[in-house]
Amino acid sequence: MVSPGVTIRVVLDTNVLVSALLFENGRLAWLRRTWQTAAITPVVSESSARELIRVLAHPKFRLMRADIDQLLADVLPWCETHAGPFKACPFKVRDPKDQVVLDLALSADVPVLVSGDADLLALKNQLKPLLILTPAEFQIWLENP
Predict the structure, then answer these.
(1) pLDDT in tens, 58-88
(2) How far apart are CA 113 and CA 16, in angstroms?
(3) Is 45 helix (H, G, I), strand (E, B) or coil?
(4) CA gap 30, 98 in Å, rounded
(5) What's residue 3's pLDDT?
(6) Helical H runs in 57-95?
(7) How far is residue 103's CA from residue 33's CA, in Å, rounded to a whole number?
(8) Please, what are the domains in the chain?
(9) How far apart are alpha carbons 108 and 87 in whole angstroms?
(10) Taking CA 141 as the corner, what is the angle to CA 109 and CA 77, rounded to the nearest 5 degrees?
């Protein structure tokens, strides 16, 4: 739970970030407002930022370079960068991209990892004190201090 007025450091899975950025009126649009009002501080690493750029550049989104730059400008100024060191997580997940997110959360010592990924959510109760929450669970957690 969160105390009012406290900024929470959090790792947001790439798909969560992309949804919050691309769909201004979507179900995760509230997240953008949350980091832009400093209620949360997303924590990124070089590899997680590269993954975000790679996903935004995917042809299915049909974004021009200027569009990607604008989306990055809507999140990166509010982020904290974790440069290391990185701890080896005792749990391995199937997708190496998910492993990067998990390792970042553990290494940066954030209290919460927000993801919709089934492989990460399967570890929900195994990495205490790290909370692994869906975006909906995270929203409830933030709103009920």
Answers:
(1) 999 999 999 999 999 999 999 999 998 787 7
(2) 11
(3) coil
(4) 23
(5) 53
(6) 65-73
(7) 26
(8) 8-143 (3.40.50.1010)
(9) 9
(10) 55
pLDDT digit string, tens, across residues 107-141: 999 999 999 999 999 988 888 899 999 999 999 99
Distance of alpha carbon 97 from alpha carbon 80, whole angstroms? 19
Q: Tell me the helices (H) and strands (E) count for the chain, helix number first.
A: 7, 5
Confidence check: pLDDT of 6 > 80: no
Measured CA to CA, the distance from residue 1 to residue 4 in angstroms comes to 10
CA dist 23 → 42, 63, 69, 92 (Å): 18, 13, 16, 31
- The bridge status of strand 131-133 relative to strand 112-114 is parallel
Question: Residues 6 or more apart from 9 whose CB is under 8 A from it?
Answer: 40, 41, 43, 80, 108, 110, 111
